[in-house]
Design brief:
By secondary structure, this protein is of the alpha+beta class. It has two helices and six strands. The strands form two sheets. Strands 2-3-1-6 form a four-stranded antiparallel β-sheet. It has a two-stranded antiparallel sheet with strand order 4-5.
Length: 94
């Protein structure tokens, strides 16, 4: 079992959650703050079997996009989502 912690730009969150629910993938939404250029973001928590990870990654790739931003500080790329994947020792629903 894996836990995906995804930091997602706010503009992609609703579509991602809808897509996960369509695919019967449980997701927990946690409000968060911070980020590059003070852009709004949300943290999504998703439990996944290891063999389903590619499917979950595909949904993120389909919905989110990397943006290019240029300002007086330079040229930057901001990802639509940053994913952290952790091993889960045990998962319980109570």
């Amino acid at each position: 079992m894996k836990m995906i912690i995804a930091i997602v730009q706010n503009k992609f969150v609703d579509e991602l959650i809808d897509k996960f629910y369509e695919e019967n993938i449980s997701v927990t939404k946690v409000s968060s703050s911070g980020g590059f250029f003070k852009a709004g973001n949300t943290t999504l928590l998703i439990g996944s079997k290891e063999e389903e990870l590619d499917h979950v990654y595909g949904i993120f790739k389909e919905v989110t996009q990397t943006e290019e931003i240029k300002d007086e500080r330079g040229h930057f790329e901001i990802s639509g989502a940053t994913l952290f994947v952790l091993d889960v020792e045990k998962s319980l629903r109570i």
